[in-house]
Structures are given as structure tokens and as C-alpha cells.
Amino acid sequence: MNQEEKSTAVHKLTFFNCSFLLTRNNFSGFYSCFSSIKPGILTIIFTLFFLFGIFSSVSAQQVRFFTNKNQLTTDEILEISVEISGVSRVNYPSFPQMEQFASRGQSTSQNFGPSGSKITFTQSYQPLKPGKYQVPAVSVIIGGKTYSSEPLTVSITKGNGNTAQKNQGRNNRPDDFFSDPFNQFFSDPYNSKKQEPLKFTDVTADAFLSVELNKNECYVGEQLLCEVILFINRRDEGKIRVDGMEIANLHQRIRNRGFWEEKIDFTQIPIKQVTINGKPYNSYVLYRSVLFPTEAGKINFDDIYLEAKKLQVANNASIFDKFSGSDKRFENIKIKARSATLQVKSLPEHMLKPVATVGRFTFSGGLTPDSVSTGEPVELKIKLKGNGNAALISAPEIYSSPELETYEPGTSYFINKNEQTVFGENVFSYQFVPKSEGKHQIGPFVFYYFDPIKRAYDSLTSSPYYVYVTGGNLMDLKVNRSAPDKFYLERTQGNEGIELSRNFWNSYLWFLVLLIPAGVFIYIRFLRKS
After folding, report:
1. Domain 63-197, what fold?
2. What is the CATH number of domain 357-499?
3. What is the pTM of this model?
4. Which of 75, 69, 71 minimizes the C-alpha distance to 160?
């Protein structure tokens, strides 16, 4: 026997001794046994055991979805089952609710075998009428992961009405010997004489929707607050459900009604406890916006509604149905809002009506710089603040001296919102370039508006602004914009000769200078040929 065969024999004997010593629980022998194995082989052994444990645990977890049949009559029972292997604890599967089928209860069984535990959940359905129907997917959550079945199509034909006879054979199955002895006290999914289709009825739920306006009358362009609030009696909280998508659809039904909308967004729906006619309610603000009417007339909020779900309960439910929760369901309902009307008045007739903005305003402004040289730009910046619709305010025209080159004003606006009001800030930037020296007037700045509180026209007027210019008069002025509100000036003055600018290299004079040497060269060649 060579050395390799001896080594193999020793290992075989060692494994045999290990198993023998382990059964005798001899710890010292166990230690001496494994200490004689080479470290490399010992590592391989533990690696194989580790991989075997992983594969066995992974393969042990299995989920299987199946039905008893996909073609049946209205006298038979459709069973949808979920079989889960290798898991000791699992959430109850989510079985669908179908209008074409009546629930016949649920059952659960658990078996233990050499391969581990196996749990089977079964939901029974009674077909209500013939046809071809699609059964939605069944899902179950295991260890935080969701497993779902594929949708199933079942064909239902009309039966002869003898449901008890059809299901009698199932009650005589061999495995019924081991059935639950208390099954007679619960719903039996195989005996239709004991089961009738669940008859669901609406429960009483005190809930209503309301459109709330902070004023019922206003002027065109005057801001007002609009809210849509859902009120639910605190005793009926669990009977009404509202989906987030339906709230978004509600917002769309309010838009485009003859007003400018500034929506006030919130991260969480505001909830408040209120008492109405002695009853306690929770109020949920589903919509909140500041509105600016754009035309006179009547605006009706009479077709605003919210799609929600309302609880229904089966009156003929068994104890098992109530235990499993199949005696309850939620049906789609439409909650119509209490109507509200807004009367929008036109502004009083006045010469300022075409140019006046509705609201209350203040302003501030300044000229920078107020002392420049001829040809250097100056800027007048006006900030207008108020509760009017800042998005629709344009820059007013402003007077300036003829000795100032005037450019189109730059405009920008910002909107600040709180829970109930919108404030705007408009910024107007006027640019001027002096063409001659002296003291030149800009303004005054005048802004006309209609005050809805005073119900009268008013104005904001500034004092005139003056710019002091030095440097003589410009004979020629050329202004190029290199950036917004910035100017690059080039000028020539008659009393100082010609000053070549950077644009000289693109001028006709530069091309003329280039043509002179070429002309001289051509003339010399001509003379030589002559």
C-alpha cells in the first residue's frame, strides 16, 4: 500500500471513528478525530455542509398556486389554493373579490413531512351565472417579498340546480375522516344548502363634501380663497375610503371655470375636528387655492364630486365569513359637494379701468448710479408688492428726458403663499443711456390700481428721479447689448478726432486699406508688361 492509499485509508477510518465517537458523545474522542484531519480537507467538508444547507433551505421555500378546475357549472364550487412549503409563519394570502362569484368561505391546512412543513390556503367561490370570467391574480407576502399568480380564465355553464347532489361526493372523501369535527358549526363550502350567496347591504355613514369660499361676492381680478373639504362623522371613520388619485381628479374638476388659479400645496392633508349641528366630525381639506376671477358673472360650483369607497356588510354571513373578513367589502360611491355660487362684479366705469390692477399695493425704487458720464447706462429699479395677481401685471410706461436713450424694461415677479393668501412682488428694471451732459429727469413712476376694500381707484406715484451727466455731448452713439441689462458703448467725438474701436477690423476702411497694396502691385505688373 503506497503512501496515498494509506492516507486515504486513514481518512476513511477516521470518518468511521468520528461517527462512532459522536454517537457515544465522547467529546475528547471527537476532538482527537477532527484534529487528525488535514486543514484543507476540513475546510472543504465545512464548505460542502454550508452550501448544502443553503441550497436545501432555498429549495425548501416554494409557493404554488392552483385551482380545482377551470370549467364548471353554476352548481359546482371553484376552489383557489395557495400552497407554501418550507415556511413556518406566513401572512394570509390576498384572494380577490369577484362580482360574478359568491364567497363560500376559506380553509387552511398544514402538513408536516420529511421535506418540512406545508401550508395550504383555500378560498371557495360559488358561480352566480354562466359565462367566461377572468379570475384576478392571487398574492401572498413571504419574508417581505410578494408572490403573485397569473390571472386565470374560467368557463361557467348553467347547472341543473341540484347543488347538494353535485357536492355530495366531496363530503364522502377519504380525507373527510380526518376533517374538523366542529365543521358543522361553520360554513361548509361543499354543501350549498347551508350556504347562500352573501347579500351585501350599505351601512350608514355620515359623510359629505363641501365647497367653501371665503366670500360670495368679489370684483374681477380680486383674490379669494376656495377650499373643498370632506367631512366624516368620527363614528364612521372606517366606513369611507378615499384614494389619492381621486383627490387629483377632484382638482381637475375645479379648474377652467373662469378664474386664474394659484394652488396652495401641502405635504399632508390638513385635518381638523369640528362640531356641526351638535355632531362631531373630522374635516379633511382636499383642495385649497387662491382664485382670481377673470370675467364678470356668476360662477357655479354645483358639479363638484369625489369618487370614494363605502363599506358594505353581508347580513347572511356565517361565523367563518365574519372571522375571515369576507363578510365586508367596499363599493364605489360618488360624494357630491354642496353647491356654492360666486358672484363676480365688473369694475366701476372709469378712465383708469383698462389699466388698473385689482388689489392693494406698495412700492419702492431707486436709480443707480445717479451720476455718470455721457454714454454710460443708468438703471431705475421699481419693486411693487401687493395681493393682486402678480402674473398679470405688466411694467407701466415711465416718462424720461429726450436726452436719454430709453430701452424696453425688464420684468420679473415672485409669488409668496401662506395657508390662505397669496402675495406677489413685481420687479421692473428700466435702462437709460444719456446722450448729452446735464441734469436729466426720469419719472415720476405711476401705478394705477383698484382697491376692492375702498371700492375705488387709486394710484402710487413716486417723486421724479434725476441723473447728473458729465463728459460733453455725443456726436454719434452706438449701443450693443453684450448681456441682459448690460451695454457695450462705442463712440466717436468730433472734437477729439477719430478713435478706432474694436469694430474697425470689420469696417469698410479696413478693407480699403487691404485693397491699396493689391492695386499698387497690379499697376506695377501692368507697367512692366507695357
Report:
1. Immunoglobulin-like (2.60.40)
2. 2.60.40
3. 0.52
4. 75
